[in-house]
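Hi R.,

Here's the chain you asked about this morning:
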Amino acid sequence: MGRIALTGTASLLGGRLLRRLAETKGPDRLLVVDVAPPPAALAVRHRAVDLTAPAADQRLLDVLREEQVESVLHFAFFTSPRRDTVYTHELESIGTLAVLAAAAAAGVGRVVMRSFTAVYGARGQNPAFLTEDRPLQPDPATAWARDKLEAEQHAASFSRRYPDLKVAVLRFAPLIGPGVHTFYTRILDRRVVPLLMGYDPLVQMLHPDDALGAAEAAVDRPVAGPFNVVPLRPIPLLTALHLAGKIPLPVPHPLAYPAVDLMWAAGVGEAPGRFCDYVRFPFVADGERARRELGFSARHASRDALLAYIGYRHPQARARAAEAPA
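And the predicted structure, written out as tokens:
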């Protein structure tokens, strides 16, 4: 029985998946392929590979062959936008290309890759629920989403060229819950939260335990293609802010985009201006295919995930929010 290789184990979700698989599969079957080593207590094998380095694909190919890897779990993606866009592109787009090329050349049977429902793009024309066959149309000016889109395009291309390589892409809704630290949670940690005047889209908030459950479900199932991993029910953005005890500050959207861009350029913002689209328009994904083919159903609604995060970061606000009607 071959090994399972994991990238991105320094992330919250990647690290939790590593620990869970160490319990269920045993540490001997696992291999961390990353710059950062795993916790010593897990006793998991580690091979240092920098996915942004030249010839990373050849280095990774040698590792996959030497370690007799049968599956790769590729989770090396940033959950928040970064200012060093060149490095991010090298890691997420070019790094994914290296992972897929090495996996195909080494005869690896399966790749499970992390992605995000944000790749659909937030648009006023979006249907109520986005299915996996919907075209991916994020704003091309948003580098954070564009790199994820390119990674998915690489995955689709390799799936066509190498039919024996099963590539499953898990499109996670935004994570909210205990231990999560992203630009979404940093915004929720503020007392006053700007809101685009006249807009209140439905949003999905995925509990990290549900994200972990979907990743586990994908490890052993011979499935391929994209899968939306989403919570039970979305929640209106304004309702989420009220539950979190925040004070919404309505801002006209023509002013919001340049103002957020200016804050980002000054180093005090959480994201570039085009991210205003994600609080202006919906990008709510449908989870039926994951239920049907992965056997995965979320246990938490968006409200549950939000309350879990509030309880983790703001216990006093959590008590008030729990009394609010569902």
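The chain has a mean pLDDT of 93.

Let me know if you need anything else.
M.
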